[in-house]
Design goal:
disordered C terminus; elongated; 31 helices; disordered N terminus; 7% strand; 4-stranded antiparallel β-sheet
């Protein structure tokens, strides 16, 4: 695989003979190889310990930055009305009020009352309090049927449906481990209740809601180790095929394991917590490190016969230092740009990868050379990696790319334009690509939990919850005029087709009136309203149901929980506008409400804000990555126009990938939004090495000469580096979560497209840029490259 005797190589060898700073540095690294190995052996101990201590938390509220104003407001709201995760157990049956179904729900609810941190509420629990007990006798079950169907209150709250009888759950949990313990206790309580009853065929039981979704995400991501096992197998196979050396394979594996341990150890040292997108952090580091090692080792094995191994190792390290450093820097910048995101896991991921790649750069240029020397990894003189195939490719590509230069460049630009339209849309013709904001869609669509939520969830208290927080003066909520206005506001808002139900203080007061036998209607005369207001003042400090909706002691704050039928951003926009419009109209009818300040808080608004931040995350981080990479490489390569042309493969791959997304019906989500920065930063590695050696060749010859030199030196490495990039991220294709699986498949596709452009559009663009033509044919027997 020789470039033996070429002027570029000879000058590189001559430069390496000079006592430059790089030569001296690498000579010392090789000379101090044993102390370096000892240092990393000691470093691995705390790194592994810290890495093993990193926690995993895939809960949905981890998606928002803790300093976000809406996040802070939600936490302040919870200090007043209590925090917790809402869930629901649904008994589904043809007749949900049949004796066997009611008896089963009664047993389960009684068992749940013994579980710490769980508050259960249902139509049956309301009836039990109203009657001071419930024994599930035929007479009492019939009485409960009349009680539950004598009002629409329970249906509006989602506690009773045509075929469902639900138990609402409020879980007070502390993090992932606390949630797991509580859900396990709930599962045991249900199992015990059903075991004591025997036959449970009268109804099917479904568990829905945020805690169960979070637990599902935790379980699926706990199997993330499979991705890295697959990548490890891929590295072994690739290494054996490329170098056929056990010693080289050992050097690769030790270096990669060190990069992984030190990078994840940094996350542990900073107190970081892994989230739903965090598996991409170690995978990106492994992929980038492996690509750099392939470039270094491929240059090392390409040793001319007359050059000593030790001298050639220093030359190879010097020769690839700038390109490898620039490529790692490009990837680090691509991810560091994600720090502008207001989505917490994406921001953390960007910072972690950037720091991890800085550590990887140090490890690659210190530990790996030491291992090369200690393990005596063979060069090309011990086993030739060249093949006649690469020589034929080198001889064929330059002339072919010149002949088809305009079709290649124009087709690349045309496909890129279609990709841009697929992403951003075309006014009046194509809408921009939609953003997926419903966290339930992160789940596998084949899972029973997903199917239950989609079938039963829209009208039940589950994930799509927003709270309307009303703040006023002390005692203002118990004013009769304010209560009357709140009832009007709630009723008007419930008339919106996009709203499933609204539960507030007037709902609880109506329920209390219904229990007392006064009916579930809202009083209209002043005396009855005064009486109800006085009742509120007396019950608020002692009635737990009211305490969830009215500030118990000051009576200056209240909240209404809105159950929406969708968690999509468009649905929240509609809800937000409907609340504002309805509030303004109701305040006009009830001036007493004008003293209250209204805020919308809760999980659904935070999801909506996350969705709103997805596009800025994509656009801002991508633009920042492009600017920084271009500026940095302008300083390195001193050729702005050519440097811009060299970015064609990455831009082409990213935009065509968005076109594939649009054609296949995929949507932007928390994972796929990362592909642009990931692919730009990582695939630029190939273009950096391509362009570095192209300029190296241009110092001595023509465009054709430079292309041939580039393909001989870096073509094989670009091919295998792309296989590494694509293969590494393709491991995510086995993920159960659709966003992670889509990220892996799309990233692999983008890397393949980028390599295709490396060998087609990029050479074609360089022919056009330099206005060059192929060299004249050489006479037979003449010397050539």
């Amino acid at each position: 695989m020789g470039v033996v005797g070429t002027p570029s190589d000879q000058r590189g060898l001559a430069a390496s003979a000079a006592p430059g700073i790089l030569r001296r540095s690498f000579a010392r690294i090789v000379a101090w190889r044993w102390p370096i190995l000892g240092f990393y052996a000691l470093l691995l101990v705390p790194s592994i310990w810290l890495a093993l201590g990193v926690r995993q938390d895939n809960s949905i509220d981890r998606l928002i930055v803790a300093t976000d104003p809406d996040y802070v407001a939600t936490r302040e709201f919870e200090k007043v009305f209590g925090a917790g995760e809402f869930a629901v157990l649904v008994a589904e049956a043809p007749d949900p009020l049949a004796p066997a179904v009611v008896a089963r729900v009664d047993r389960i609810e009684r068992a749940l009352q013994k579980v710490p941190g769980v508050t259960a509420n249902s139509a049956l629990s309301v009836y039990r309090r109203a009657r001071a007990g419930f024994d599930a006798t035929p007479a009492e079950i019939e009485g409960f049927r009349r009680f539950a169907t004598g009002t629409d209150l329970f249906r509006r709250q989602g506690l009773l449906g045509d075929h469902t009888l639900a138990i609402g759950l409020l879980l007070t949990v502390d993090g992932t481990s606390g949630r797991a313990r509580t859900l396990a206790a709930i599962e045991r309580a249900v199992a015990t209740a059903d075991a004591n009853a025997g036959d449970t065929s009268s109804s099917s039981l479904h568990a829905l809601g945020e805690p169960f979704v979070n637990a599902y995400l935790d379980r699926t991501q706990s199997g993330a180790w499979r991705y890295f096992v697959l990548f490890g197998v891929f590295v072994v196979a690739l290494n054996v095929a490329l170098y056929r050396s056990v010693r080289t394979l050992a050097a690769f594996l030790v270096t990669l394991a060190t990069c992984l341990a030190v990078s994840v150890g940094y996350i542990g040292a900073t107190g970081g917590t892994l989230t739903i997108v965090s598996p991409m952090v170690p995978m990106t580091i492994l992929v980038t490190a492996t690509s750099s090692l392939v470039y270094l080792q491929s240059r090392f094995v390409d040793r001319p016969p007359d050059r000593p191994v030790d001298e050639h190792q220093i030359f190879a390290l010097e020769n690839k230092f700038v390109a490898c450093t620039a490529s790692i820097f490009a990837t680090a910048v691509g991810f560091a740009a994600l720090a502008v995101s207001q989505i917490r896991p994406i921001r953390e991921m960007g910072i972690w990868v950037a720091v991890g790649l800085a550590l990887t750069w140090v490890i690659v240029f210190t530990l790996f050379p030491a291992l090369q020397k200690c393990l005596r990894t063979p060069t090309g003189q011990e086993w030739r990696t060249a093949s006649t195939g690469i020589e034929r490719f080198v001889g064929w590509l330059p002339a072919w790319s010149h002949r088809w230069r305009w079709p290649l460049v124009l087709s690349a630009l045309g496909l890129s334009g279609l990709g841009a339209v697929a992403l951003f849309g075309l006014p009046g013709v194509v809408a921009p690509m939609r953003i997926l904001t419903d966290p339930v869609e992160y789940m596998s669509h084949a899972s029973s939990l997903y199917q239950d939520i989609r079938r039963l969830g829209p009208s039940l208290p589950g994930l799509s919850l927003s709270q309307i927080w009303l703040q006023g003066e002390v005692g203002s909520i118990s004013e009769p005029a304010v209560l009357d206005g709140l009832h009007d506001f709630q009723q008007t808002l419930e008339a919106d087709p996009g709203v499933g139900a609204v539960v507030g203080p007037t709902t609880i007061l109506r329920t209390i009136r219904y229990i007392a036998g006064a009916g579930d209607g809202w009083p209209t005369d002043a005396a009855a309203l005064e009486e109800l207001a006085a009742e509120l003042e007396g019950l608020a400090p002692v009635e737990p149901m009211l305490g969830r909706f009215v500030e118990p002691h000051g009576l200056g704050q209240a909240q209404l929980t809105v159950i929406t039928r969708s968690a999509e951003y468009e649905a929240f926009q509609h809800l937000d506008a409907s609340i504002a419009r309805t509030w303004s109209a109701v305040v006009g009818r009830h001036p007493a409400l004008g003293e209250l300040h209204l805020r919308i808080v809760g999980l659904t608004p935070l999801h909506a804000k996350m969705a709103q931040n997805l596009v800025p995350t994509l656009v801002e981080s991508f633009a920042l990555t492009v600017v920084v990479i271009f500026a940095a490489f302008l300083l390195v390569f001193r050729n702005g126009t050519a440097r811009l042309m060299a970015m064609i493969p990455s831009i082409f791959a990213i935009l065509v990938m968005f076109l594939v997304m649009r054609l296949s019906g995929m949507r932007l989500n928390i994972a796929t939004i990362l592909i642009a920065s990931t692919v730009l930063g990582t695939s630029e590695n190939d273009q950096i090495h391509f362009f570095y050696h192209f300029l190296e060749g241009r110092r001595d010859g023509t465009v054709e000469y430079a292309l041939r030199h580039t393909l001989r030196v870096a073509g094989r490495a670009i091919l295998f580096a792309t296989l590494i990039n694509a293969g590494g991220f393709l491991a995510f294709g086995v993920a159960e979560l659709p966003p992670i699986r889509q990220f892996g498949l799309l990233a692999a596709l983008a890397f393949a497209l980028s390599m295709l452009a490396d060998f087609t559009a990029l050479p074609a663009a360089l022919w056009i840029l330099f206005r060059a033509r192929p060299d004249p044919p050489r006479p037979l027997g003449s010397a050539g490259v």
